[in-house]
């Protein structure tokens, strides 16, 4: 449980730093940020309740490691797909949803 708390604090500080950088450079879209904040808290709450239930039911703490590994694997897979699609479209750099036209 100590490692879970440490990981949560690291994620909190990393998210805060990234958000601060977006605000400082004028890249934060308030409506989008609010929507993502609500989705993030809701998904975190549902995920925490579900994982706590499964750990209590199966008495296996390894479910936490498997869920983190699954998210990392899914992220790597989706980033690969986005990169391949960008190359197919002739895009030289990945633009994503944070691109701002100036």
Short account of what is shown:
By secondary structure, the chain is mostly helical. The chain has helices at 2-24, 30-58, 62-88.
Description:
The chain has helices spanning 2-24, 30-58, 62-88. With 102 residues, it is mostly helical. The model has no long low-confidence stretch (mean pLDDT 85). The chain contains three helices and no strands. The N and C termini lie far apart (46 Å). The protein is extended. Helices cover 77% and strands 0% of the residues.
Give the SSE map.
Blueprint: H1 2-24, H2 30-58, H3 62-88
Q: Calculate the terminal CA-CA distance, rounded to whole Å.
A: 46 Å
Assign an overall shape.
extended
Order of helices and strands: HHH
Largest pleated sheet: none
Look at the structure and give the mean pLDDT. 85
From the helix content, strand content and strand pairing, which structural class follows? mainly alpha
The portion of residues forming beta strands comes to under 5%
The count of β-strands is 0
Which stretches of 5+ consecutive residues score pLDDT under 50? none
Helix content: over 70%
What is the rounded Rg? 17 Å
Q: Specify the number of helices.
A: 3
């Amino acid at each position: 449980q100590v490692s879970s708390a440490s990981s949560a604090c690291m994620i909190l500080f990393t998210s805060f730093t990234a958000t601060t950088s977006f605000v400082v450079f004028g890249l934060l879209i308030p409506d989008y940020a609010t929507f993502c904040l609500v989705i993030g808290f809701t998904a975190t709450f549902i995920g925490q309740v579900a994982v706590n239930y499964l750990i209590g039911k199966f008495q296996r703490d390894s479910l936490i490691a498997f869920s983190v590994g699954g998210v990392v694997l899914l992220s790597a897979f989706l980033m690969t797909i986005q990169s391949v699609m960008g190359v197919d479209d002739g895009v030289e750099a990945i633009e994503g949803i944070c691109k701002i036209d100036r």
